[in-house]
Amino acid sequence: MASETSTWNTKADLVPLEKGKEKELRTRISKIKQAEVLRPGVVYVGHVPHGFFEPQVKRFFSQFGTVSRVRLARSKKTGGSKGYGYIEFECEEVAKVVAETMNNYLMFEKLLKCEFIPVERLHPKTFNGWNRKFHKPTRRSTAIRKHNKPKDAAATLQSAVRLAAKDQGRKRRYAALGIKYDFSGYDDIAKKAKLQAAGTVSPKVPKSGQAKKPEQSPVTLMLDSSDPEITFKTPPGVAKVKKVKKAGKKQT
Asked: Cellular location of this protein (predicted)?
């Protein structure tokens, strides 16, 4: 999870529920806690207001029951919250009560959207990295990844044309100074890139990736076993198939 400065006062009292529902809710939860076997339950929370991050979410929803894990969806580029997340409670029945009670609850001018997620619908990677601190990528690492990203045919053509244009300008400047400069490397690269973009020339395939030649089917030799004077010597790897003699038609 990312470390951010929250605008929510964690020392203040928790936000109270609607009048008349708080007593009923606590009665239902106390009955659920008396159960011997507890199964974890997950609640989806949407429309989470800004400033209501993982510590605040866990502290607020802990008033219903024990919260095992909290994970808010965050941007990979900025680390900012996307406004939705998942909360895992120790008891499945508590999670159902929370989804029913907190759905459409007004919080910081936003209506929370809560929904109970059954185990069958829960993705196995929902809580991946829930306890790991998010590190925002630096500009240097982003630039390196962008520079080393493999280029497609259009990007290769654009780069080759740009290099060829710079080389032509360099030749004109050298010619004005009386310097003979002849290098056609960039022109050849640009021509090859144009042909590849047009689809007339396919890129070379490395030796390790070359397709294997299709294997030839074994030669089949037909033998007639009715003639005992002829002996055939079959070379290795050749399958022997005996020719079945068809019975002649009966004359009427």
From this structure: Nucleus, Nucleolus
